[in-house]
Design goal:
By secondary structure, the protein is α+β, with helices and mostly antiparallel strands. Helices cover 22% and strands 36% of the residues. The chain contains five helices and twelve strands. Strands 1, 2, 3, 4, 5, 6, 7, 8, 9, 10, 11 and 12 form a twelve-stranded antiparallel sheet that branches. Helix 1 packs antiparallel against helix 4. 36% of the residues are buried. Keywords: Hydrolase. One of its GO terms (molecular function) is hydrolase activity. Pfam families: 4HBT_2 (PF13279). This is Thioesterase family protein.
């Protein structure tokens, strides 16, 4: 059994290309997940699972751009794995075409663990919670995680300042906001690669094809900034990979792996980047 959530698309969700921004999709997934667990919770304890969890991993594959529409976009979600202290949800974001087929914009998965916020520790799933999740279980083989390479000395640095509005009711930075931090760090890093307005390097149009985030330690609100580091780990014909870490000193709080694709603005198709930009990417490889 699968749960379908009708998610409204807001005008402010768009990026400069007129697409729904890649970060916003993760907010849609969160809305669908909470709605699923609230709607189908079979007890008070099961209902608490809707909000009493933390995200361990998020892996998002972007399939097609989503443009603003007054129609809600549909988010289908279901359970793919239930373990002792974690469970995994899969998602598909789509519109239904007039012929009944789907226009799929995104496919994703999240690994979640129940959490005791008073003690700041994860806990095991109860038998009752496992039973409730089993109703939506469709086991699948887990997708291969992108390889992670050690941070090089030449990684780009970006100070991440946590806003008060980034923090949820449990005083943790919300999982969606990590995607925004990594996006800001990535854009800043591109400027450091020689793509600033005073440098004569063609600015490519980029779209995100995949983003995977591993959450390790909760990020809390504080006046001092955290450190975000970004570096190039692969350069292909029309795409490249950026890896990132969010740190507090030597402590890694979260890691991200992003695949970006260079596209032709008019054709909206992948295209090789300008040679000068490609040379900058290659020069940045560890």
């Amino acid at each position: 059994m699968r749960h379908v959530y009708e998610c409204p698309v807001r005008w402010a969700d768009q990026d400069p290309l007129g697409h729904v921004n890649n970060v916003v999709y993760v907010d849609y997934l969160q809305e669908a997940r909470v709605d699923m667990l609230r709607t189908h919770g079979r007890s008070r304890q099961a209902e608490e699972l809707a909000e009493g969890v933390v995200v361990v991993q998020t892996d998002v594959g972007y399939r097609a751009p989503l443009f603003f529409d007054f129609r809600s976009v549909l988010v289908e979600c279901w359970v793919t794995e239930v373990r002792a202290a974690t469970f995994t949800l899969a998602y598909e974001v789509f519109h239904v075409r007039p012929d009944g087929s789907r226009k799929v914009y995104l496919q994703a998965s999240t690994v979640l663990t129940p959490y005791v916020f008073a003690d700041e520790r994860p806990r095991r799933l109860t038998p009752e919670e496992r039973e409730g999740l089993a109703a939506y279980l469709e086991p699948v083989e887990a997708a291969e995680r992108p390889p992670f390479t050690p941070r090089p000395a030449a990684a780009g640095h970006y100070p991440v300042r946590v806003r008060f509005s980034d923090v949820d009711v449990y005083r943790h930075v919300n999982n969606v906001t990590y995607f925004e931090y990594f996006q800001e760090a990535r854009i800043s890093y591109f400027e450091q690669l020689g793509r600033g307005p005073s440098v004569d390097v063609a600015r490519p149009v980029l779209v995100i094809a995949r983003k995977a985030v591993d959450y390790r330690v909760p990020v809390l609100h504080r006046p001092e900034p955290y450190d975000a580091w970004s570096w190039i780990s692969r350069v292909g014909t029309t795409s490249f990979d950026v890896q990132s870490e969010l740190c507090d000193g030597d402590t890694v709080l979260a890691r991200a792996h992003t695949t970006a694709v260079v596209v032709d603005r008019e054709a909206q198709r992948p295209t090789p980047p300008d040679p000068a930009f490609r040379e900058a990417l290659l020069a940045a490889l560890p």
